[in-house]
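Incident log, structure service

09:12 report received: a user says their structure output differs between two submissions of the same chain.
09:20 pulled the input from the user's history:
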Amino acid sequence: MDQALRVKPDPSDPRLTRRVTGVDHTGAPVETSVTVERPLTLYLNGQEIVTMMTILDRPEDLALGYLLNQGMLKPDAVVTAVEYDEDLGVVVVRTPERTDFEEKLRKKTLTSGCAQGTAFGDLMEGFAQVRLPRAELRTSWLYRLLHRINTLPSLYLEAGAIHGCALCRQDQPIVYMEDVGRHNAVDKIAGWMFRNREAPGDKIFYTTGRLTSEMVIKTVRMGIPILVSRSGFTAWGVELAREAGLTLVGRCKGKRFVALSGQERIVFDADLSYVPEESAKHWRKTSAEAMAAGDEA
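09:34 re-ran on a clean worker, output below:
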């Protein structure tokens, strides 16, 4: 199933979850797993950039991806070192040239999301200049891809309170990362792509989060032509996707999905009579489907 998967979550990693006790709705004692988040302070050379709350499984990728998606590193930038100090909770990205982002750091935008992120500078910087490559999305790939992602080992299934993102090619996930905020999961994949010089043109980006303006902007900046989610859309996210020519596919559950931008890339080659409905255990706990399913969800 995950033969081509190069990075995936490790729910058994004791650093990522913790067992805690409490009571349930009947007053009975319970023990459950919860996700552990920790602060990570990012420096670019000698300048402090931001402190992020993260599960801290891939701090180097997160640091690089954050700087790339903020426009503080260019895709062709030379990075001489990425130094992570676990005891201090600090990661330092070093480049040969002097950097100064005081002006950009003064322009701060709080982004939407369950664990809110912060974007510095002009959110739309360089967006209009991006030209996404031609690509196709076969529905047969999409359905196999969704099934494979849903059956991957997952911190979400272990402890909840987590978002997942995947970098995919055709019907295969290549990299799957999770974090308390979807922006962190996206940035970790961007950092991994930078370190491994992974070309974006033939990729599909999958997220469990909503298709917001932030998700669209980051996907376009990464040069990926197709963005897929099990969740819904925001109006500005759709508008920006149409402006950039990004294929935007949401509400993916079982055999159902809705595409609101870039439909010309979609090839409807799947026989829907052979596509199974999604198991309720993979639905978000607050979704209407999960609530209707009751205990099964």
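09:41 both user submissions now match this output. Likely a transient worker issue. Closing.
09:42 reviewer note: Residues 284-297 have pLDDT under 50 and may be disordered. The chain has two domains: 38-120, 137-296.
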